[in-house]
Design a protein that fits this description.
Double Stranded RNA Binding Domain; four-stranded antiparallel β-sheet; single chain; 18 strands; mainly beta; 2 domains; Neuraminidase; 6-blade_b-propeller_TolB-like; globular; B box-type domain-containing protein
Length: 222
């Protein structure tokens, strides 16, 4: 009887194949199969990353697997059906049934999230009340999300190979980076609000390699 694949390699899954994962990268937040783990260890951008076996990953406390955002005062913990906010000052917890997101960012007391399978970007109050939901043709399979110091929302559109900026009121958007700029299958994004430095994960073509792309990251000044 064939063994059941419990964790699929994230990189292979991005390419449309299902391969059993053996490692978890703590920095990249991806599962890796045996082959991808070898490339991950050789890549200049990831060879220093810490990884663990999938068994060790699943032995972590559940809340450590599902922490998706923190601003130093609040912590957002995600599950399949709900999210929980933990106040780090008194460790009190508030369950938010309404907030279900793939990735989350916190800014000035509000929660911002992407809903991958619905192509949505959402904003909620810390109480879970929805403030706005935004969709656009340029936003397909959104994952990573972050905000700049002015409250503009930056989202990676994975299957459109774009970085899209949504206005603070959730009414308009603008594509600022695309495949023409070298963005390919972006997964994560972050901004240092003090310096205005933005980092975006991407794939780049590797010469003389059987695998067409490897993951890297680009750095920009916004």
């Amino acid at each position: 009887m064939a063994s059941l694949v419990t964790d699929c390699c994230t990189l292979c899954n991005d390419d449309g194949t299902s391969t059993e994962a053996v490692r978890w990268c703590i920095e990249c937040e991806v599962f890796l199969c045996t082959d991808c783990d070898k490339y991950h260890k050789k890549s200049r951008s990831s060879k220093a990353h810490n990884t663990m076996s999938t068994k060790d990953y699943h032995n972590l406390p559940k809340f450590m697997q599902e922490i998706i955002a923190s601003d130093g005062q609040l912590l957002v913990v995600r599950s399949v059906e709900k999210s929980t906010i933990v106040n780090l000052n008194d460790m009190s917890q508030t369950i938010l049934e309404e907030v279900v997101a793939s990735r989350v960012a916190l800014f000035k007391g509000n929660i911002y999230g992407t809903i991958y399978n619905e192509n949505k970007v959402c904003c909620y109050k810390s109480s879970g009340e929805a403030l706005w939901t935004f969709q656009h043709d340029d936003i397909v399979d959104p994952l990573g999300i972050t905000l700049d110091r002015n409250g503009f929302v930056y989202v990676v559109s994975q299957n459109k190979d774009r970085v899209v900026v949504v206005s603070p009121d959730g009414k308009t958007c603008k594509t600022i980076l695309s495949e023409a700029d070298g963005i390919k299958y972006p997964h994560a994004i972050d901004i240092d609000r003090e310096s205005g430095i933005m980092i975006v994960s991407s794939k780049i073509r590797v010469d003389n390699d059987d695998r067409e792309y490897e993951r890297t990251a680009f750095v920009y000044k916004i």
